[in-house]
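USER:
Class, as today's exercise, take the chain set out below, and explain how the chain folds.
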Amino acid sequence: MDGRQRNDLRPGMMVQIVLKKDQPTGKRTTGIIKDILTKSPTHPRGIKVRLTDGQIGRVQEIVNPGVN
């Protein structure tokens, strides 16, 4: 499941994001969503989130979509 739909994301979900500094390489960082930062319902490059460790990036994949 990709991270382009805001409705698919909830705080507490484990996701893989791409940090701004890693956009050229596409390197992914795994973490738990703390806050959803993108206000629009969709985004072509992924919804921007803040992880519990404070890192900010765009969601590329939802690791465990069953978590509410």
